Amino acid sequence: MNKSPLNFFEEILEIPRPSGQESEIAAYLVEFAKKYQLDYEIDNYYNVIIRKKNTLPYICEPIILQAHIDMVCDSDFDYDFEHNGIKWYKENGFYRAFKTTLGADNGAGMAIILAILSNNEIYHPPIEAIFTTQEETTMNGAKFLNYKKINGNRLISLDGTEENKIEVSSAGMATITTRKAINFINSNKLTFKLSVSGLLGGHSGADINKNRGNAIKILAEVLQNINDIEIVKIEGGSKTNVIPSQAFCFFKTQKDISQELMNIKKIYQEKYPSLKIELKRIKDLNTCVDNTTSLAILKYLSKIEDGVLKVNEVKFPLTSSNLGVVITTDKEVIVNLSIRSSIVGFEDYYVSKAESLARRYKFAFTLEDKAPFFTFREESKLRDLLVKTYEEMYNEKIILEDVHAGLEGGIFAKEIKDLDMCVLGVNLYNIHSTLESVEIESMIRVYNWLIKALENME
């Protein structure tokens, strides 16, 4: 009896797979290939390639099926993603997680590919299944994949987020780290903790235009109004590509800000109804950052451009910025942000602006990485087949969509000559957040859609 994608998905959920720590999930894929007697390769980045021979009654060019095997790890409490799988449950036709990210991005795509590879009763071209690593962080898996070992030049990526959409272009993304050296001084002022929480968070590409608020920005904007302030610790966000849903700051002041905070709180809560802003007097801490440096940090954070920067005529985001993480160590404050764009030159322009702002407030600036975007292909036999198949099976129109997320597709398009590529997926909701869910029936429908399309490939 063939296993369904749901069986594989539930197995995947049990395996730890933070981005950059994919050894266990890669080992699972290797064991899968051995079990089903399929050729496989694994490289130093834990990318895994699994090949299955042609079963069509005629010679056919290979098809590449691709998914990334890492996940964004975020939780509403201190959860050990490195050593634990996801605590999941089913509810009303969806898979969900207990107060953590689910990892359906891209675990659902992985599961569908594995179900296809394991099914010996279907017809299909030669399959090259590519499972890449570190997509959610550096994209090093796709960057350092040995493309000389790939024979196909048509690719279906299962990294989409909506069932009836095929993603036909994507944004590129620059990731940035800025750092400011700090020294701690003694202070006898009162110590407080200001917390910002309750925001929805989400994917810094797919959700950047949904007005969900950025906890770090709100925290900095509130605190910069306190002239008499000395930061003890400021932290917020979890990943560069996740919109921060919570942030906090320990600080010292002699100023009574309770009434002022009440007024500011009302303003922000009108814009973000789920927002929580809480001020607490805590046990006094002796050391802090001096007032001048503290104000420079807060003003810098408040002035970083965040959200949608450029849109097209139908209000689709073309360029955006996400202030993703701020942390404090005993020597420095570190800020991580990302800039996405699908317009030639605009990413470089906004990266340059970010560098100028960092220098203005004496933050060291490092451009960590740049991932390319891919553009719409005018003629695509693969896209035509997928659209025709879906619409005939489900009597629903397929939407061709440009996406603002940064996808590995940009790297594949750069490395594989004349690549015909489509990005599709199942119905995912609130990815990169603790509200993440995936529709169960959608996984089955996409699986059946792909099987039918594979059977009709030439």
How does the SSE layout of this entry go?
Blueprint: H1 5-13, H2 23-35, E1 39-42, E2 48-52, E3 63-68, E4 88-91, E5 94-97, H3 104-118, E6 127-132, H4 140-143, E7 154-160, E8 165-181, E9 184-186, E10 190-197, H5 215-223, E11 230-236, E12 247-253, H6 258-271, E13 276-281, E14 287-289, H7 291-303, E15 307-311, E16 317-328, E17 332-341, H8 346-360, E18 364-371, H9 381-394, E19 399-406, H10 409-415, E20 420-425, E21 428-429, E22 437-439, H11 440-455
Parallel strand pairs: 3-6, 3-7, 7-20, 8-19
Antiparallel strand pairs: 1-2, 2-6, 4-5, 5-22, 8-17, 8-18, 9-14, 10-12, 10-13, 11-12, 15-16, 16-17, 21-22
Mean pLDDT comes to 94
Q: Within the largest sheet, what's the order of strands?
A: 1-2-6-3-7-20
Beginning-to-end CA distance, first to last residue: 28 Å
Tally of domains: 2
CATH class of the largest domain: Alpha Beta
CATH homologous superfamily (4th level) name of the largest domain: Zn peptidases
The CATH topology label of the largest domain is Aminopeptidase
How does the helix and strand content classify structurally? alpha+beta
Helix content: 25-40%
Q: Give the number of DSSP strands.
A: 22
If classified by CATH, what would the architecture of the largest domain be?
A: 3-Layer(aba) Sandwich
Discrete helix count: 11
Strand content: 25-35%
Structure description:
Helix 3 (104-118) crosses helix 11 (440-455) and helix 5 (215-223) crosses helix 7 (291-303). A hairpin with a 5-residue loop joins strand 1 and strand 2 (48-52). The protein is elongated. It has two domains: 5-163 and 373-455, Aminopeptidase, CATH 3.40.630.10; 174-371, Alpha-Beta Plaits. The chain has helices at residues 5-13, 23-35, 104-118, 140-143, 215-223, 258-271, 291-303, 346-360, 381-394, 409-415, 440-455; strands at 39-42, 48-52, 63-68, 88-91, 94-97, 127-132, 154-160, 165-181, 184-186, 190-197, 230-236, 247-253, 276-281, 287-289, 307-311, 317-328, 332-341, 364-371, 399-406, 420-425, 428-429, 437-439. The protein is 28% helix and 31% strand. The strands form five sheets. Strands 1-2-6-3-7-20 form a six-stranded mixed sheet, with helices on one face. By secondary structure, the protein is α+β, with helices and mostly antiparallel strands.
